[in-house]
Structures are given as structure tokens and as C-alpha cells.
Design brief:
Rossmann fold; alpha/beta; single chain; 14 helices; 43% helix; five-stranded parallel sheet; 2 domains
Length: 365
């Protein structure tokens, strides 16, 4: 049995779907696996609360969102039905260390589990003593620079992992800078699953009319204006998956409590997609949908996570999609040539599977 450490028990589509994808991939490789449920102790919970208190606007938005309880319930039901979890719930490092007897190998990843703003040793498998049993598959730092106060600890933890890969080129550079190791860049698990595999759990929406889909995790009026300008020319309806109060006064249909399967259905059936979500973007790519990506963060932001969007678009030869000039194109089908993108995806999938298989079998890929 393989124990997986990742961030997945939340109401975030990307976190849940990348977790589902990794388990599906491991199962296809004849590997039994489950997510290790780590809730943390009281101190960890208070630290997270402290982060929220330093950003009071986040608290206000959480309280002002409509249907949040319904969305959380829908996510939890999906997780129970689709993601295998450990029966034990762990609360601290000592309890996690006792799990070494339960698993033959451990995998940390994917998603932004290595982001400095949520630094935790367990995301680096710090509780596992045998380095040869540890695999990092596609974790992301989310940033292009590690704050000095974390660099020594992170360097030591990564050195303790035998098989290391990361999700972004920027992450590989960070690992090289702090450890001297050259590690491969692999695809997010969500890109390893083909479109037909996602369709097996997607739930199509009950819409008879053509629509564009807007899914923004940031709150920039300029991004909404781009969507509005395009809609004025396209005659499409607009479906919005809301996060901020402003989202509820926008669009023709507000989908509040869609579970991850319904989210996939909304993506696949949209005429075009506007998003600043990393996983919204890569799942659009998987479905070969016309989409426009946006950069959510401002450059000076210490937690700027734009590198992950830029990295994957650059890897797939689609960096030009970030150009605002694309809004002048009349037909969404002209936005991206998926012939070359799919060819590149095939190559990267092979490389990513090669790393994972090699790590599981105990040799360097």
C-alpha cells in the first residue's frame, strides 16, 4: 500500500481533482494507494487561523459567499465516493511517524503543497525515516523564490527524499539552488488522465443554450471586463462559478454548489472558458477547449503564484494565450491549435509516467 500526502480535503476543484487523478494513475499501475488523513494539532489550526486574521478580507468573503455550506457538502460527498483515505486520522508528527509500518512507499504531491506560505514538514514526508521509500511527484512551490527563513529546512527535507520531481521549471530551479540537485519536471496528475477518463466522472449540465464559463479565484474587475467584451460579440450566455460577492451580480447563471464532477461537465460543455485557475486551465487543455487564461497575482506579491500558469503554457507552446489581443478574435476555435499541444502532451505524459514508474520500482528514471 502507498500512502499519499497531499492537500485535498477542501472545497477546491483543483486540489480534489489532482488527488483523484494521482490515485487513478497509481491504480492503473497496479498500485494500491490511499490518502493519509492529516488534520493537524491545535497549534497547526491556530497558525492557519492566524493567516486568515492577517487577511481579514478573506474572512469577510467566506461569510458573504452564498451556498458555501452546500458546496462543501457536495465536495465531501464526492471525496467519500471517489478518493480512498486512511481509516486513521493523524494529528501530529509523532502519530504520522507510526504510519511507516502501514505503507511500503510514500508519495507527496501534487499541487502547491511545498508553497512556503503553508510550510509543513509532513508535506515533505519528514516523518518517514527511510529516504528510499519517499517519492515527490509534481509538488509545486507556487513561487519563484523561497523566503530565506524557510530555505535551510526545505533543503534538508528535500535531500531526505530519494525520488524527487516537481511540477514547474521554476520549481526545478529552486530545488537546484537550495540543494544542488537537478530534478525532472513532470505533469500535474490532472494532465496525466486523458479526456475520456475525466468524462467517466463528469456530469453534464442541463443547459440547452450555448454558454461561456467564467471561473475566477482572483477578484479583478479588468478580467471580468475582458469577458464582457467578448460576450458582447459572441452572443453566448455566461455561466459563472462564484467566489466573490461581485460574481453573484454577473452572468446568466450562477452555479454555487457544483461538485467536482459537475465542474468537469461545465468545462467540457462550454463553448469557451475564462479562468485564472491553474486546474481550470489545464483541464480545459485536457478537453481541448478554447480558453483564455489570466494571471491572478500582481508581480510584487510575496505569494505570487503566476509562475505555474506561465510554466505550463510555455511548456505546451501556448504562452501567447496570455495576450489580451486574443480578445479581438471572432471565433473561439482560433485561439489555440491543439494539434501541437496534444503532441507535446503525449511526450510529457510519457516522461512523467517514466519517472513515476521508475520511482515505484526503485530505480532512477
Amino acid at each position: 500500500m502507498i500512502g499519499i500526502v497531499t492537500n485535498y480535503r477542501n472545497a477546491n476543484y483543483g486540489s480534489v481533482l489532482q488527488s483523484y487523478a494521482l490515485q487513478s494513475i497509481l491504480n492503473s499501475l497496479s498500485q494500491q494507494c490511499e490518502n493519509i488523513r492529516f488534520i493537524g494539532n491545535r497549534q497547526t489550526i491556530l497558525q492557519r487561523a492566524g493567516t486568515m486574521i492577517r487577511n481579514p478580507s478573506q474572512i469577510l468573503e467566506k461569510f458573504r459567499r452564498k451556498g458555501r455550506r452546500e458546496r462543501i457538502a457536495a465536495f465531501q460527498e464526492f471525496i467519500v465516493d471517489n478518493i480512498r483515505e486512511s481509516k486513521r486520522i493523524f494529528h501530529n508528527h509523532e502519530e504520522l511517524a507510526s504510519s511507516e509500518a502501514d505503507y511500503s512507499k510514500f508519495i507527496c504531491g501534487s499541487d502547491q503543497i511545498w508553497a512556503p506560505f503553508q510550510f509543513s514538514e509532513h508535506y515533505y514526508l519528514g516523518f518517514v525515516h527511510d529516504h528510499s521509500r519517499k517519492i515527490a511527484y509534481a509538488p509545486s512551490f507556487g513561487v519563484t523564490e523561497i523566503p530565506r527563513r524557510f530555505s535551510t529546512a526545505i533543503s534538508k527535507l528535500i535531500d531526505g527524499i530519494r525520488y524527487v520531481s516537481v511540477r514547474e521549471t521554476s520549481g526545478a530551479k529552486l530545488v537546484a539552488n537550495i540543494t544542488g540537485r537537478n530534478v525532472p519536471v513532470v505533469l500535474d496528475p490532472a494532465l496525466l488522465l486523458a479526456a475520456e477518463q475525466w468524462r467517466s466522472i463528469a456530469k453534464p449540465p442541463n443547459y440547452n443554450s450555448r454558454y461561456a464559463l467564467a471561473y475566477f479565484l482572483g477578484n479583478k474587475a479588468a478580467h471580468r471586463n475582458v469577458v464582457n467584451d467578448y460576450l458582447a460579440k459572441s452572443r453566448l450566455g455566461l455561466v459563472v462559478i462564484p467566489k466573490y460577492v461581485e460574481d453573484y451580480d454577473w452572468g446568466d447563471d450562477i452555479v454555487i454548489s457544483a461538485n467536482p464532477g459537475e465542474f468537469l461537465g461545465l468545462l467540457e460543455n462550454a463553448e469557451c472558458i475564462f479562468t485564472d485557475s491553474y486546474h481550470g486551465m489545464i483541464l480545459s487543455i485536457n478537453f481541448n477547449k478554447p480558453f483564455v487564461p489570466f494571471l491572478r497575482f500582481s508581480a510584487p506579491d510575496e505569494n505570487n503564484q503566476n509562475s505555474r500558469v506561465i510554466d505550463i503554457l510555455d511548456t505546451l507552446g501556448a504562452l501567447s494565450l496570455l495576450s489580451a489581443k486574443k480578445m479581438d478574435i471572432k471565433y473561439a476555435s482560433e485561439w489555440l491549435d491543439y494539434t501541437s499541444v496534444n503532441h507535446m502532451l503525449t511526450t510529457k505524459r510519457s516522461e512523467s509516467y517514466g519517472f513515476l514508474k521508475g520511482a515505484l520500482e526503485g530505480y532512477d528514471a
